[in-house]
């Protein structure tokens, strides 16, 4: 990334909900793969990498963490909290863990390391905050809100289990299976669409998976009444909550996903 960016500014083409675009240019203060240079002095560390890469980054930053650091998974995906507690060692015992349910924006790379397009922000985004004895140097949620901007509106879920059970984390496997289960191995004549190409079979799978997660949350709350699991909602309801201004057809889950711009 450092070589690709060179002496240039990083460019973000941000599309607002009203259709206008804002061009944002900036340069990172530091681009490095050396955690001994990047981590000391940091009191807010945000993970924006895929879940498979979390372990490597946790192990890399662990020796250099300072007390009362806030660790953010944006998104976290199920198990982020457990992995954080397991891998950050002594330095992580006073770290707060913030786990977000999803990404704040839909993005596409324009030129690697040089330009990215933000297709639009979500309306809301929930997180779970586990303080673990942390005494942060700043108000956690409002500071993260300041970092990402005015949208999406950040909210706090009742508990971290709700974040782990939210259906957004299991969207891709049913969609991938439904898209490719009958593929004969031959090259396609055109690139298949993912969300916009959602078929009825995949949509039914998504509905069943989401319903199972909601029922699981209800069963947990029934057995443990003090556990508020009402943040776990069906994927269709999640789309209507987070993309209400971006969906053209809300007649069904499939159409909501296909027409979400």
UniProtKB/TrEMBL annotation:
This is Octopine dehydrogenase. The gene is ODH. PANTHER family: BLR6086 PROTEIN (PTHR38015), OPINE DEHYDROGENASE DOMAIN-CONTAINING PROTEIN (PTHR38015:SF1). Residues 157-259 form the Opine dehydrogenase domain. GO terms for molecular function: oxidoreductase activity. InterPro entries: 6-PGluconate_DH-like_C_sf, 6PGD_dom2, NAD(P)-bd_dom_sf, Opine/Lysopine_DH, Opine_DH. Gene3D superfamilies: N-(1-d-carboxylethyl)-l-norvaline Dehydrogenase, domain 2, NAD(P)-binding Rossmann-like Domain.
């Amino acid at each position: 990334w450092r070589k690709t960016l060179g002496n240039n500014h990083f460019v973000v083409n941000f599309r607002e909900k009203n259709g206008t675009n804002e061009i944002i240019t900036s340069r990172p203060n530091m681009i490095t793969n050396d955690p001994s240079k990047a981590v000391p002095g940091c009191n807010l560390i945000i993970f924006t990498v895929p879940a498979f890469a979390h372990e490597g980054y946790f192990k890399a930053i662990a020796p250099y963490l300072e007390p009362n650091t806030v660790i953010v998974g944006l998104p976290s995906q199920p198990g982020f909290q457990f992995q954080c507690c397991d891998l950050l060692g002594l330095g992580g015992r006073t770290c707060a863990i913030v786990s977000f349910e999803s990404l704040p924006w839909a993005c596409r790379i324009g030129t690697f390391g040089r330009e990215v397009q933000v297709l639009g922000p979500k309306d809301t985004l929930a997180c779970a905050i586990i303080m673990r004895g942390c005494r942060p140097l700043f108000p956690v949620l409002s500071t993260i809100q300041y970092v990402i901007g005015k949208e999406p509106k950040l909210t706090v879920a009742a508990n971290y289990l709700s974040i782990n059970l939210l259906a957004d984390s299991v969207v891709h496997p049913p969609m991938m299976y439904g898209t490719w289960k009958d593929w004969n191995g031959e090259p396609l004549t055109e690139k298949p669409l993912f969300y916009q190409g959602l078929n009825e079979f995949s949509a039914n799978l998504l509905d069943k998976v989401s319903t199972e997660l909601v029922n699981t949350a209800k069963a947990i709350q029934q057995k443990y009444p003090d556990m508020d699991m009402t943040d776990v909602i069906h994927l269709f309801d999640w789309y209507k909550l987070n993309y209400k201004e971006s969906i053209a057809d809300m007649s069904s889950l499939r159409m909501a996903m296909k027409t979400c711009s």
